[in-house]
Amino acid sequence: MNTPLLILLSVLVPLTGAGLVSQLQRLPNLRETITLLSAVVLFIINLLLYNTFPEMTSQRLVLAEPFENLPIAFRVEAYGLLFALVASGLWIVTSIYSIGYMRAHDELNQTRFYTLFAVAIACVMAIAYSDNLFTLFLFYEALTVTTYPLVTHAGTKQAKKQGRVYLVLLMGSSVAFLLPAIVLTYLQAGRLDFVAGGLLSGVLNAQWLAPLLLLYLLGIAKAGIMPLHHWLPSAMVAPTPVSALLHAVAVVKAGVFTILKVVVYVIGPDFIAGQGAHHWLVWLPMLTILVASLIAMTKDHLKERLAYSTISQLSYIVLGALAANSYGLQGASLHIAMHAFAKITLFFAAGAILVANHKTKVSELAGLGHAMPFTFAMFTIGSLSIIGLPVFGGMWSKWYLIAGAAAFDGPTFTQWAMLATLTVSSLLNIAYLLTIPVRAFFASPGIPSVHAKEAPLPCLIGMAVPAIFCIYLFFDPHWLLNLSQPTTANGLP
Amino acid sequence: MQTTVLLVVLPLLFAPLTALCRNGKLAWALTLVLMLALSTLAIHLMRDVLFGAVIHYELGGWAPPWGIEYKIDSLNALVCVIVTSIGLLSVLFAKSSVEKEISEQVTALFYACLQLCVLGMLGIALTGDIFNLFVFLEISSLSSYALIAMGRNRKALTAALEYLILGTIGATFFLLGVGMLYAASGSLNMQDIARRFADFGSMHLVSTSLAFIVIGIALKAAIFPLHSWLPKAYSQAPSVISIFLAATATKVSIYVIIRCLYQVYPVDYWSSAVLPDLLTGLGCIAIVYGSARALTQTDIRNLLAYSSVAQIGYMILGIGLMNVHGLMASFLHLFNHAIMKAALFMAAGVFFYRANTTKLSELAGLGKEMPWTTAALIIAGLSLIGMPGTVGFVSKWYLLQSAFETGVWYAVIAVLAGSVLAILYVWKMVEALYFRPAFKVAIHHVPSGSSGISRTPAGMLVSIWLLVFSCIYFGIDTRLTTTSARTAVATLSSDIHIVSGSTP
């Protein structure tokens, strides 16, 4: 099969799924079957695309050309493939999990939920395979719009309020900062294609590099860099599967993915390193990592704590990208995958606790580990992987990130600060994540709860699969390592 | 090339016929036939001039500069297409809406007035004679005063009166300006005036005439701070008229400004003075002010009307920036804004038709009952924000590009601030429609069980969705719109040299 067709299918399959699902209000079983089926088909398509990689990277799919030199075009590329594989693979898991979660929780408007979920995945695929910044921007905005009704799903006053924060911050920042950054890039380079080594490298006047990069960092608010991070905790009012796949994997990873693409293919890591533009910009993710971790420690609401943990982890990726050397970039792209598997496990566990025992606060979890041993075991695995201990996949990304920090060629003080940030934040991870299962297993509950039980079976399966991957990826990270190197000029990694 | 004059002659023939009709349905059918014919003619005309040809038509065979000449290039062909196609869709929309809002006796007169209004606008667009332009301006204005006054509410009368007073002042200014220009040049033919500009005796008279003409048209185009008539007029007029005027009336006036500034007065003459900065500044203020006022409105139609004030600001800004991309952005926005604003006002019209109100608080929760209309409103609203993949983005893109090229930073900031405010006011509508609990007595003053009102008529849905579809289609396939805009800019700059900007 040829690559352009496969790329087109990767967008059309979830869209078709969405169309079918929206008509199946009356037949919930068939509806869920179709969701699951489209997830599986989509994953297979991405695997087929992986098979053609890296030979077929020169084939492009062009849909239209609204502006001069700005087509809506798609192409397979290493980072995109990595992102698409992770997102579509986890969509299967999330679909299984959702069946248990949404039914046990008696959620309303489930059809709307499944429909929009599939549309959001289609947007993610389009983002992953975008061949230029314009196409990426198009679907970046579309993703914001389609996920907004998922955030306000509950329809309560709080959900609406948080939904407004979500929309205004994400869309507002992209209009106010990202759009001018893109226009400036276009004016300088005359096009917006992703070019190995950087489109702007050698074109842009060096003194404008840092301001432009700052515009990009502020504009891509989906990456959750402070101070424009507040939409992510707001998005936690959404049902857990949304928080898990979209706000721990798809949407936020679309953000860091965009930053990675901008750094590698639009500006060019060598250009950044050569001009030293990143010497002060790295403080932005560094502060985010630490401040978000500290805020996470104060949060008693489990999903909010996880959200702040996500913010902090996303900035690892941004930091790796801004380190602008091969180790940092490798660590950043690896972390996209590693963090996805670990964080989705944690969110699934949080959802399972909510569904089975209606607990949302960390302080309420004391002693619950005896009733839900499986859930908390999975939670422990996820936490350990995020902390970055051996036998868990998270170790590899942290390994490369630290190597990237060590190879950072800026001021020594900044370099040490980067290393210190990574270390201290790992310790903070222990403090705010690992204390949760510890409390669940070892603290004695004030009032013993008689009715405590495990979540429905689909939820348990959903949790187990990514947790297993967390361990598996420690032993076999090679395919990820292959995909986490930028495609070079000749098309080979 | 008799097509050209048919655009003006046909409505002139149809309007009295329509006025004679006793039957409202027959009047509607006649108008629909007329609009179909006109839009076919306009598209035909557009096809002829799209790639730079210019059609000259001497009215009555009298040669210019003595006779009246019609001159059609890519720019006014685009305006004709906008006027006729929006006219066609509003007439398609009008049937049920007019039955509800306009009393049976005057329905025929209503349609006749609408035809005269279209006639006036087409005449303004086609003519190459500046006094003739004034005549058509008055035809379209007088008929629109009457149309607005037919609004269902008595407030419509005061709104129409206010528009009448301000509109007449504007027309008077324009006429005085034309008079002075004639005194200085001895000619009324635009091309003739432009060609002999260097030989004029009294330059004082010329500069005064420029000031009078610009102010007169600025009033008609509702350029900030001369916009005060617009929100009242648009929100009180019958639904169909809001749709039609919002999408076309101000566009035609903007067209006149461009035409006067580029093809009557030489660019070098006015661009050295304060005018470009004035246009840029007023455009920016209009964008921010209009968007901010839109945000505070509680009625959908008022909100949309203030948003129009802001959108006119974008077009003025594009003219004021004085480079190719800025002018292109203005042309594109003429077309793009017409599509999206017509769709939005149509949605408001459907809400009024079904729920008898356009107040946001009373429309609460209607999104569930009217999913198609609300979805149309959202898509058109996204286009207003400037979401990529919709027409709104295309014009905003060129405008930003132009602002960066000319280095007018406050214009960049105004455009971006306007877009962020647009997110807020569009989402204000969406939230009211979708997320507020349903307003129990959503349908007022309507006898219960009236089945005619319980579903949206097909004509309304078809016309809304045609517009929404074009919102997306022309956002992705921009060949037609950008080609015509590019050709128009080329025509303008070939007649008189336009400042070309390519380096920041």
From TrEMBL, chain A:
Subcellular location(s) of the protein: Cell membrane; Membrane
Name of the protein this chain belongs to: Monovalent cation/H+ antiporter subunit D family protein
Source organism phylogeny: Bacteria, Pseudomonadati, Pseudomonadota, Gammaproteobacteria, Alteromonadales
InterPro entries tied to this protein: CPA3_Na-H_Antiporter_D (IPR050586), ND/Mrp_TM (IPR001750)
Keywords in alphabetical order: Cell membrane, Membrane, Transmembrane, Transmembrane helix
Residues spanning the membrane: 6-22, 34-53, 78-101, 113-130, 166-188, 208-232, 244-268, 280-297, 306-324, 336-356, 368-393, 413-434, 455-475
Recorded coiled-coil stretches: none
Organism: Alteromonas aestuariivivens
Location of the NADH:quinone oxidoreductase/Mrp antiporter transmembrane domain: 130-415
Family the UniProt entry places it in: Belongs to the CPA3 antiporters (TC 2.A.63) subunit D family.
Topology of the protein relative to the lipid bilayer: Multi-pass membrane protein
Taxonomic superkingdom: Bacteria
A Pfam cross-reference name: Proton_antipo_M
PANTHER family: NA(+)_H(+) ANTIPORTER SUBUNIT D1, NADH DEHYDROGENASE
One GO term describing the cellular component: plasma membrane
Main location: membrane
From TrEMBL, chain B:
Pfam family, one: Proton_antipo_M
Cellular compartment(s): Cell membrane; Membrane
Membrane-topology annotation of the record: Multi-pass membrane protein
Transmembrane portions of the chain: 29-45, 74-94, 106-124, 163-184, 204-226, 238-258, 270-291, 303-322, 334-353, 374-395, 407-427, 458-476
InterPro entries: CPA3_Na-H_Antiporter_D, ND/Mrp_TM
Keywords: Cell membrane, Membrane, Transmembrane, Transmembrane helix
Any one GO CC term of the record: plasma membrane
NADH:quinone oxidoreductase/Mrp antiporter transmembrane domain: residues covered: 129-421
Family statement: Belongs to the CPA3 antiporters (TC 2.A.63) subunit D family.
Protein name, per record: Monovalent cation/H+ antiporter subunit D family protein
Source organism (scientific name): Alteromonas aestuariivivens
Lineage of source species: Bacteria, Pseudomonadati, Pseudomonadota, Gammaproteobacteria, Alteromonadales
